[in-house]
Write a structure and sequence with these properties.
By secondary structure, this protein is an alpha+beta fold. It has twelve helices and 14 strands. Strands 3, 4, 5, 6, 11, 12 and 14 form a seven-stranded mixed beta sheet that branches. Strands 9-8-13 form a three-stranded antiparallel beta sheet, with no helix packed on it. A two-stranded antiparallel ribbon has the order 1-2. A hairpin with a 4-residue loop joins strand 8 and strand 9. Helix 1 packs across helix 2.
């Protein structure tokens, strides 16, 4: 038995959830994957999977062995890539999980420059505002926008911190006027973003704080839908400055109460394991840090 091949087969079974999908992923057959798993279990002397006609689940020993397989195989792949890759030209497919704010609204700001700087890296982007399982999803890294990061088994690096600013479309301001104070803002529709809860906390440069309840007519759970609604002149909303900076610069959106902000959000790069980063992951991380530093 080729133990490394068997470990790759087992990892693929766990991550894809079936022998057939694992075989497709590895470019082999269902029979070969099943045989490798059987040989692996025999050699280890433990059962790795509970199988029935509907699903596969790892045993307790199998779950631990899976984590060890991921760590070992990723280290081997990283070592090979470091030997075979010019460090000045990182290469390969980089699978990224990005929130919609970065993968859609900010895409035009960072993508062209990265693709030009790293012509040998192919990007495979998946946009999702939920926290996905990086290991099971087969992602090399993710970027998330959040408050301070809670303790996690994931490796992480902070890329930027951005204030959340209030904005509105020019046609909205032309129709309803521009609020000049917190009291003025009370009479304007504040579009509700589900992740913010029932109210928005505002702080001023002078230390003044206020709580504003969202309007009830329009509530959205998508940052893309929230952006579209604001652009359509339906009200005022809060976004990170990094997300709307191009809209502000081009006049597509206007700052509302520029002396106030709705807190801060941190931009984090997350990695499946806290280990030495591969050249392609390091290249993207460093590029995005420099990109956000220039944006600020």
């Amino acid at each position: 038995m080729d133990q490394l091949s068997a470990m790759r087969a087992y990892r693929s079974i766990i991550e894809s959830g079936s022998f057939t999908k694992a075989a497709e992923r590895l470019g082999t057959t269902h029979t070969s994957v099943s045989r490798q798993l059987g040989q692996l279990e025999t050699q280890l002397g433990v059962r790795l999977l509970n199988r029935n006609s509907r699903n596969l689940t790892a045993t307790e020993a199998g779950a631990q062995y899976y984590r060890d397989c991921v760590d070992i195989l990723d280290r081997i792949d990283a070592a090979r890539q470091r030997l075979n890759t010019d460090p000045e030209l990182p290469s390969g497919v980089l699978r990224l999980s990005l929130p919609h704010a970065i993968g859609a609204l900010e895409l035009a700001q960072w993508l062209p420059g990265f693709m030009q700087r790293h012509p040998k890296i192919d990007l495979d982007l998946s946009c999702d505002d939920r926290m996905v399982d990086l290991v099971k999803g087969g992602f090399d890294m993710a970027i998330r926008i959040s408050g301070p990061l809670a303790d996690s088994s994931l490796g992480s690096r902070e890329l930027a911190v951005s204030e959340r600013v209030l904005v509105a479309a020019p046609q909205y301001v032309a129709h309803r006027g521009l609020p000049r104070t917190i009291d003025d803002l009370q009479s304007h529709p504040l579009l509700a973003y589900a992740a913010d809860g029932p109210a928005l906390q505002l702080s001023s440069d002078s230390g003044e704080e206020a709580e504003l309840k969202f309007g009830s007519r329009l509530r959205l759970d998508s940052i893309l839908a929230l952006h579209a609604a604001v652009m359509a002149g339906q009200g005022i909303a809060a976004f990170t400055f990094l997300t709307v900076r191009d809209d502000l610069a081009a006049g597509r959106l206007l700052r509302v109460l520029p002396q106030h902000h709705a807190g801060q959000r941190h931009y984090f790069a997350l990695y499946p394991h806290a280990r030495q980063l591969t050249p392609k992951v390091r290249a993207f991380t460093e590029y995005m840090r420099a990109h956000y530093a220039m944006a600020r």
